[in-house]
Amino acid sequence: MTPTLQVFLIVSAALFSTGLLGALSRRHAIFILIGIEMMLAAANLNFIAFWRFSPQSQPPTGVMIAIFSIAIAAAEAAVGLALVIAVYRHYRTTNVDHLDQLKG
């Protein structure tokens, strides 16, 4: 059985929903970042699936967008983890409910 576009879209929707649930229901900053990464992976899967199942032979724009998105996600993860470490050193917690004293 060859996978179809619908199979990829269902997997992508399940991955995005899991990431959204993880980002909105968790209280720790690390789990929120993991949920955001899962949502970005679902978007990348959509880009690749729509590029793969396009009717004409297209240049690999979906692949290029996915690779660019992976690079952005890596930078986001590095900055996000650096912020989490800085907040943990100051407050001794990664619970986002306890971070109401931040001033900017």
Task: Provide a quick synopsis of the model.
By secondary structure, the chain is mainly α. The protein is built from three helices and no strands.
Structural description of this entry:
The protein is mainly α and 104 residues long. The chain has a single domain (5-98), classed as Helix Hairpins, CATH 1.10.287.3510. Helices cover 73% and strands 0% of the residues. It contains 3 helices and no strands. It has helices at residues 5-25, 29-52, 61-91. Helix 1 packs antiparallel against helix 2. The chain is elongated, with a radius of gyration of 17 Å. The termini are far apart.
Structural class: mainly alpha
Gyration radius, to the nearest Å?
17 Å
Number of DSSP-assigned strands: 0
The total tally of domains equals: 1
Q: Largest sheet, if any? A: none
What characteristics describe this protein?
73% helix; mainly alpha; Helix Hairpins; 0% strand; single chain
Topology:
Layout: H1 5-25, H2 29-52, H3 61-91
Helix pairs in contact: 1-2, 2-3
